[in-house]
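Batch manifest, entry 17 of 40.
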Amino acid sequence: MNEKLLKPYDPKETEGRIYKKWEESGYFNTDVCVEKGITKSDAKPFTIIMPPANANGSLHAGHGLVMTIEDIMTRYKRLRGYKTLWLPGLDHAGFETQVVYEKKLEKEGRSRFGMDKKVLYDEIMDFTMTNSANIKSQVRSMGASCDWSREKFTLDGDIVKTVYNTFKKLSDDDLLYRGKKIISWCSKHQTSFSDLEIKDEEKIDKFYYLKYGPFTIATSRPETKFGDKYVVMNPNDKRYAEYKEGQKIDLEWINGPITATVVKDEAVDMEFGTGVMTITPWHDATDFGIAERHNLDKEQIIDEFGKLLPIAGEFSGLHINKARPLIIEKLEKKGLVDKVDENYKHVVRTCYKCGTLIEPQIKSQWFIKMKPLAEKALEKITGGDIKYIPEHYQKITVHWLENIIDWNISRQIVWGIPIPAKICDKCETGFVDLDDSITKCDKCGGVVRKDIDTFDTWFSSGQWPYATLGFPNGSDYKTYYPTDVMETAGDLVFFWVSRMIMLGLYVTGDIPFKTVYYHGMVLDAKGQKMSKSKGNVISPMDLTAKFGTDAFRIGLIIGNTPGTSLALSEDKIKAYKNFANKIWNISRFILTNTEGTVSDKSFVSYSEQDKKLIETRDALIKDVTSDMDEYRFYLAGEKIYHYAWHEFADIILEDSKKIFETGSEEEKISRKQFLIHTLKTILILLHPFMPFITEELWGIINGSDDVKLIVEPWPYIS
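Output type: structure tokens
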């Protein structure tokens, strides 16, 4: 009897040692498996590109779920003999990381504003590299059998080169432009966003009804009204039929008399407010659209820091939050406030990181024309080329792609991939310039300057599948693209997944992956979203240290259907620690009672009772295999758990005790062979879910310190 089995299972002693042996064996590398004859050279490939974790902190519970699901897929396919590649990577996470670092600067009494850009970049790089080492250590501790020799970072030179080439290709194909358009702007972080990075929040504000000449207009933002010189109504609104397009109306306004011009536009909602409105094209997307259609002036009222400009007269320099009540006070004194709704419920757009109210601004930015890219993606998705798990995400994706708008890929931050372009000082035309050779504007002959913006992180990470594999000539790209599965969180369906599909199709001509597997959010035990402010964040490292990684992994999977949020509790993980102990005790019982018995795969002289048990075991193998093939890991894990504990341990082992006491010699031999083979089967089936304890037991059973289970053939039953 191996002395280890005489002691309780110790995850802390086992996991680090086993993982080190896995790494040293080279089995994470598919090329090594082929070289050693474990995997056939012509075996079918199976590829997962790891969603790159943000290199700015530690793994959270959601990351733990990602690592577990993807490792289950990888280990299963490796056991099935596939040429398996799970490529790991980290994301510089431009804006996200810069925000994290800005908080660090604030604690130190510093600010990025005023810092030398290179100094700031270098500091964030050092910060990122430190965090990267920590994250990679945590990924290893989760048992991730990814190929570290192929590890990628979104700022690697080859990745950046691919991103730049795509940028140039978009320009050459007339799918890229630099335009002065209204964009979403965060006054705190001083950068623009795409629409996807804006958080819609319901809020209760005051709603002011203001007298505007013969009209009453309604607004929650009186601070934007200084430049309002157009009064707009729907041409179909009979209430205002007497007013004609272009008509001039003299009226008293905030800072004195003005002349307003009547504009008719169907964008005006006749049911909202009074059915008539003034517009501020610089600070509202709807107003901007009206101004564009009617060729109206656009005047900036609020600067990039949320302060009023000189057009606001006496209120110039005040932050809009401070100015608003003062403006209303003045309007009241002038008799221009008709009434105030104190409980106006509406949706406002805020920065998804800091909650600051988004202030639309007109700025020159780089945009990608998305409709042509979306059309090709829609063809593949609706044609069934990409499988969605759960299926309803396909409909969600299709709806978004059908209504897609151009993508602003410019960010006014330091940390990221610099945009390789020149901007004309005179006409503001942008030119893609990969080799830094353009010295003057082709349109007007003006002086050009280097673009100081960086790419939206999602533009670079949207190219992750083919960029990491060495597009276009890399051997990995030729072997492993398209990848098989993209496993990620459901909230990234637009941010990342759909963009990967569009860019993958555009650049390579092929889909980037065949299946998209969406997992749900990991919640606390009460079903609440985890947040630092609530104090309910559960660290996977804490749980694995307390209960073992295997318990944490299988606890995340059983009962967790794709796309469904998971309530995570210590009690659940503790229960699966008990299961790990059960597997350990099962193994000790079997090895104790079969000592001296040589496992014989060719053995056929089973008792009639054991033949029936084999049929049940084989049915389990079939069921589990089918579930694994169809990505029903929650079912596969549950079936193995129930068989091992309730069927094998509770019933079969108890019955075996009787056979070993009173059974015939033939019955004893039969049962011993059955027990050994079934234990091995359970360990193989369980290995993707609980790799550490199963590998440890496999070594004990076979009397070897080498790691073997990781490449053992799967017990497939046809």
